Amino acid sequence: MAQKNTINIRADVTQIIDGRKYKGNICFDECNFQYQLEFDIPIDKLDEIAERNPEDVMGHIHLGVIDAQKRVVDGAMNVLCMAIAGDLAIDFYHAPQTRDANSGLLGTHPCVSGLENLSLSTHIERRLLKSPELEKILGTYRE
Predict the structure, then answer these.
(1) pTM of the model
(2) Of 33, 108, 109, 118, whose CA is between 20 and 30 Å from 8?
């Protein structure tokens, strides 16, 4: 349950292709969203771009978000989801457990018999301070 002045955020990410493609869910209190996140260059190469010019990074990240009623999400809500999903996927990619798992059989042969349904994932839980702007954005998507 969120405190009066905060909004609970729960988000998860599942790797589809290491360093390139992820999917997951983001929940702001009772507002649920599904997303697919794709990097047009691998995350490790994206890190190199970010070191040279952080503004160039966003052009290499593509996000599709739908709400609980399967409506496409755009505008400010899409930007907020991009920030959460992008950070979560990049942190997940760099996690030692992810790097270890992807350097083994799963990372080199994702369709090896018996491993097709094995996936790597993680989740976060955070709180955001409520603001009139955030409440207005979320109001559009409340069930």
Answers:
(1) 0.81
(2) 118
